[in-house]
């Protein structure tokens, strides 16, 4: 399948520059081990994908959309239909980045065959290039099964949000020697099984560094280590859309305050009959 697209600008909100764009590929990302740092952000809508696409190598349609978009308390409640709807929107809104879609809780853990059916549906209905799943050594056979059948897999170890009920919370992992050793073994297992990249989340910094040195695929950190081969954040956290965010987040803007201010100014203009003006009316 060709990875070259021409952007359609016939709609008023489409990309403004009609030029051929070649999308990055999974093999190109896999070769970035130890090279130029990989930039990844989450995206859930077509418009956000348009804005992030020029700056990112990977766009992750994360099951974090359950909390960010739908106001759920955990990612465990996210459905496959949610992921497909938002995944298709992000693919439509992007033209350069590799789009990766989370497989939601309960859709892949039963067996490699169940995971294949879910992943195949996700890729067919969205056009995404890869899927992401959580878990270490126990998921290695699934990573291998999918990879050998043409489905690129991004793995995820450390703090795995879908397992929050078993972990007992969202605290950093790897503080004890035993837990650190287990997570390191998990990372090695999924890397050897064939994942093209590995998200390392919420671990003590030395463990993030050790994992990056131990595996041959690129690591993408989120609350891990600057030594990782790339970094990812939830875009709404990075933009400052929430009052609370994990410790590992840096807010690069305070968009929540700016949106609130704009809404207040709009409300004032309406109540004082300063909007609409002649400029917004049809004569």
Describe the structure.
There is one protein chain. The chain is an alpha/beta fold and 283 residues long. It is built from eleven helices and ten strands. It has helices spanning 26-30, 46-52, 65-68, 80-93, 112-126, 140-148, 164-167, 177-193, 205-214, 235-238, 255-271; strands at 4-6, 20-22, 38-42, 58-61, 98-102, 130-132, 153-158, 197-201, 219-222, 230-233. An eight-stranded parallel barrel has the order 3-4-5-6-7-8-9-10, surrounded by five helices. It has a two-stranded antiparallel sheet with strand order 1-2. The radius of gyration is 20 Å and the shape is globular. The chain starts with a strand and ends in a 12-residue tail after the last helix.
Helix content: 25-40%
Note the gap between the termini.
Answer: 50 Å
**Strand order, sheet with most strands:** 3-4-5-6-7-8-9-10
> Count of DSSP helices?
11
Number of strands: 10
Shape: globular
Radius of gyration: 20 Å
Order of helical and strand elements: EEHEHEHHEHEHEHHEHEEHH
Mean pLDDT: 92
Low-confidence stretches: 1-7
- Biggest β-sheet: count, sense, barrel? 8 strands, parallel, barrel
**Strand percentage:** 5-15%
Q: Which structural class do the helices and strands define?
A: alpha/beta
How does the SSE layout of this entry go?
Elements: E1 4-6, E2 20-22, H1 26-30, E3 38-42, H2 46-52, E4 58-61, H3 65-68, H4 80-93, E5 98-102, H5 112-126, E6 130-132, H6 140-148, E7 153-158, H7 164-167, H8 177-193, E8 197-201, H9 205-214, E9 219-222, E10 230-233, H10 235-238, H11 255-271
Parallel strand pairs: 3-4, 3-10, 4-5, 5-6, 6-7, 7-8, 8-9, 9-10
Antiparallel strand pairs: 1-2
Helix pairs in contact: 2-4, 4-5, 5-6, 6-8, 8-9
């Amino acid at each position: 399948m060709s990875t070259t697209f021409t952007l359609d600008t016939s709609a008023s909100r489409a990309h403004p520059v009609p030029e051929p764009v070649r999308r990055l590929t999974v093999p190109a990302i896999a070769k970035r081990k130890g090279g130029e740092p990989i930039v990844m952000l989450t995206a859930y809508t077509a418009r956000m994908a348009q804005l992030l696409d020029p700056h990112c190598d990977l766009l992750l349609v994360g099951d974090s959309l359950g909390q960010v978009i739908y106001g759920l308390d955990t990612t465990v409640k996210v459905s496959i239909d949610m992921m497909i709807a938002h995944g298709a929107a992000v693919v439509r809104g992007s033209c350069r980045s590799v789009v990766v879609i989370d497989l939601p809780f309960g859709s892949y853990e039963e067996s490699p065959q169940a995971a294949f059916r879910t992943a195949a549906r996700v890729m067919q209905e969205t056009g995404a290039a890869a899927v992401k799943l959580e878990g270490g050594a126990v998921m290695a056979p699934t990573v291998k099964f999918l990879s050998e059948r043409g489905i690129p897999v991004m793995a995820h170890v450390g703090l795995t949000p879908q397992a929050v009920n078993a972990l007992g919370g969202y605290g950093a992992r790897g503080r004890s020697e035993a837990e650190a050793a287990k997570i390191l073994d998990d990372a090695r297992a999924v890397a050897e099984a064939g994942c093209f990249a590995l998200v390392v989340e919420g671990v003590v910094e030395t463990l993030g560094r050790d994992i990056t040195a131990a595996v041959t695929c690129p690591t993408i950190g989120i609350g891990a280590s600057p030594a990782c081969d790339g970094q990812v954040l939830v875009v709404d956290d990075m933009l400052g859309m929430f009052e609370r965010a994990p410790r590992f987040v840096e807010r690069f803007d305070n968009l929540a305050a700016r949106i609130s201010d704009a809404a207040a100014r709009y409300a004032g203009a309406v109540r004082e009959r300063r909007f609409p003006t002649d400029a917004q009316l049809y004569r």
